[in-house]
Amino acid sequence: xxxxxxxxxxxxxxxxxxxxxxxxxxxxxxxxxxxxxxxxxxxxxxxxxxxxxxxxxxxxxxxxxxxxxxxxxxxxxxxxxxxxxxxxxxxxxxxxxxxxxxxxxxxxxxxxxxxxxxxxxxxxxxxxxxxxxxxxxxxxxxxxxxxxxxxxxxxxxxxxxxxxxxxxxxxxxxxxxxxxxxxxxxxxxxxxxxxxxxxxxxxxxxxxxxxxxxxxxxxxxxxxxxxxxxxxxxxxxxxxxxxxxxxxxxxxxxxxxxxxxxxxxxxxxxxxxxxxxxxxxxxxxxxxxxxxxxxxxxxxxxxx
Length: 304
Prior knowledge:
The protein is mostly beta strands. It has strands spanning 63-68, 76-81, 86-92, 95-102, 109-114, 122-127, 131-138, 141-148, 154-159, 180-185, 190-196, 201-204, 216-221, 229-235, 239-245, 254-259, 264-269, 275-280, 285-290, 296-302. A four-stranded antiparallel sheet has the order 1-2-3-4, with no helix packed on it. It has a four-stranded antiparallel sheet with strand order 5-6-7-8, with no helix packed on it.
């Protein structure tokens, strides 16, 4: 496996708005004029798991998201797009091959996210059809769970750390880590999900987190496992909410609001989990930290 850094660039859609029922992303104005080869008739419906020899090795619309799997699983890359499909690519020799295709979503797949490697080789996919799917790769095969998550559409998904805050961190790896994640939707809500071993399914961990008054564009679960759990959410309502849960009061989440003058698009935690980056419609990135009084302060604005 090469040790060189890799950069993957997905389609960057222009700023024109798209009808909300289809996708939270702007509709690419160039899409109707893309020259694609004529579709071939299919004699039988195709299964959701496909090999490179059975289907075209490209998306049939804008690619919204690409994401690398953990290196312990090899050179694995996932892509998702406007066509509602998720592709899994693997580098074999000097060639990249599509090894799996997941095509059970009926609308745009807006974001994909790999779980912490301690939890297994899991990929969560959020779609405008209101559903979330979790793909699990093991022993050269793929299993999946798909379920309804939000009433209108799912715009974002983020995994929790594989260990609970305050617990001892294990370096043994394996698939014994905690499987939890948060989703943000066009219903203005955040929902927390946890894997239930008894039913082998993902179930709501609690009532939805409410407070936003417009679409939740992005969510990010802090990777920190030192004391508290933090989730950041960015919304169309021009606010970021930072949700906090203390191990002394499990299941209880409180939020603090950061107000902006523009619509917000993305939030991202530093690897240590103590700095939050926020991007918005003013072409700026701001960095935030929590002070000793528990208040969040802007420490830097990046404009260039």
